[in-house]
Amino acid sequence: MVSLKFDSDGYLLSLHDWDETVAAEIAAGENLKLTPEHWEVITLTREFYQQHQLSPATRALVSFIKRELGIEKGNSRYLMKLFKGQPARLVNKIAGLPKPDNCI
Question: Is residue 34 part of a domain?
Fold first, then answer.
């Protein structure tokens, strides 16, 4: 088994170490049990990263989700319900992506 390495903020150091099991473990560490709605956003966040080679910050994530899933899910309130606190930061962490540049 691969020993996972994280940065000081808890983000995976190697994108290649990520899989759904790792995502579930990271989420559990954040007191979050992943549902199909979470996975939908996680999958789209990873697609955004593949397209742009950039972890989406909140505004970009909301716009991308809105374009892909519609206004009902492409808004800050929906993302806040799924990923408490700072949704973009948390979804990127669970998705195995680097911390978005503008997240402190």
Answer: yes
Number of domains in the chain: 1
Q: Catalytic residue numbers?
A: 103
CB 91 within 8 A of CB 79: yes
- Please answer whether residues 7 and 13 qualify as being in contact, where contact means their C-beta atoms are separated by less than 8 angstroms: yes
Whole domain around residue 70: which residue ranges?
15-94
- Predicted confidence (pLDDT) at residue 38 exceeds the cutoff of 60: yes
For 6, the 3-state DSSP assignment is strand
Question: Are 49 and 95 within 8 A, CB to CB?
Answer: yes
SS3 state of residue 3: coil
Bridge partners of residue 6, in order along the sequence: 12
In tens, the pLDDT along 60-87 reads 999 999 999 999 999 999 999 999 989 9
User: Is the pTM above the cut of 0.70?
Assistant: yes
Could you say which DSSP state residue 12 is in? B
3 in a domain, yes or no?
A: no
Residue 85 lies in a domain: yes
